[in-house]
């Protein structure tokens, strides 16, 4: 085993222990929570090692990095998640490799993704990103639509050809009433998810929690946690 593979294996084991302990503490089964490894800024060689170690879900947040990396790893049995703020001019590229787009927060983006998915003869999973640092349907500081805009946007996704409404995503807010309160933020997301599933029962994904707060996310009911640093190490500084 190479040094890097051994390092990743040890890190994955520690993250697995954390998720398992959090599930036990919340009275949940371990299989209820899916680990998504956020591979941004790390090379395709790391993605290959992660796949060898059993990782099946990976995430990227910048198309210019993700597209070539996904192409280089196209032979691997991976599910690719796009988690960054997405501009409409990148939609065609993202829809060619992403299986799930977790950062949908406006109708214009829904329409663009629908056109791209149909053009590529693919079905794209969609998560609506919920901004918990705003009260109204405005976009949040880190992207996302306010809680009162979720239902309308969900209807747009559900009606859009080529798209599948899978659920909701959030990032713990840096400002507003949930600043420094990730558990409260994730509890709020779970409440919004429960309401959404009344009209859209299959939209049961709740993506929340990262390296620093995955325990709070699991306790609140997250079905997917997005972990980068705890698996891959401290990220290189972007130039």
UniProtKB/TrEMBL annotation:
Coiled-coil zones: none
Positions of the Alanine racemase N-terminal domain: 12-236
UniProt superkingdom: Bacteria
Keyword set, alphabetical order: Pyridoxal phosphate
Keyword Magnesium in record: no
Any one Pfam family match given in the protein's UniProt record, by short name: Ala_racemase_N
Positions carrying N6-(pyridoxal phosphate)lysine: 40
PROSITE patterns (alphabetical): UPF0001 (PS01211)
Cell membrane in keyword set: no
UniProt similarity note: Belongs to the pyridoxal phosphate-binding protein YggS/PROSC family.
PANTHER family for this protein: PROLINE SYNTHETASE CO-TRANSCRIBED BACTERIAL HOMOLOG PROTEIN, PYRIDOXAL PHOSPHATE HOMEOSTASIS PROTEIN
Matching HAMAP family: PLP_homeostasis (MF_02087)
Role: Pyridoxal 5'-phosphate (PLP)-binding protein, which is involved in PLP homeostasis.
Protein name (record): Pyridoxal phosphate homeostasis protein
């Amino acid at each position: 085993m190479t040094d890097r593979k051994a390092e990743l294996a040890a890190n994955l084991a520690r993250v697995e222990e954390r998720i398992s302990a959090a599930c036990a503490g919340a009275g949940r089964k371990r299989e209820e929570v899916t680990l998504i490894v956020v591979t941004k800024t790390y090379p395709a060689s790391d993605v290959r090692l992660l796949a060898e170690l059993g990782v099946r879900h990976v995430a990227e947040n910048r198309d210019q990095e993700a597209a070539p990396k996904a192409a280089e790893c196209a032979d691997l049995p991976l599910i690719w998640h796009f988690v960054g703020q997405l501009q409409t001019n990148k939609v065609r590229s993202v829809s060619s490799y992403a299986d799930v787009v977790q950062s949908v927060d406006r109708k214009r983006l829904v329409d663009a993704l629908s056109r791209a998915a149909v053009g590529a003869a693919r079905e794209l999973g969609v998560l609506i990103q919920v901004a918990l640092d705003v009260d109204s349907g405005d976009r949040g500081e880190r992207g996302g639509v306010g809680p009162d805009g979720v239902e309308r946007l969900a209807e747009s996704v559900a009606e859009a050809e080529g798209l599948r409404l899978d659920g909701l995503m959030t990032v713990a807010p840096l400002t507003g009433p949930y600043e420094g309160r990730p558990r409260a933020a994730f509890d709020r997301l779970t409440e919004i998810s429960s309401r959404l599933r009344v009209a859209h029962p299959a939209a049961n994904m709740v993506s929340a929690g990262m390296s620093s707060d995955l325990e709070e996310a699991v306790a609140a009911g997250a079905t997917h946690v997005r972990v980068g640093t705890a698996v891959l190490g401290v990220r290189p500084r972007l130039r």
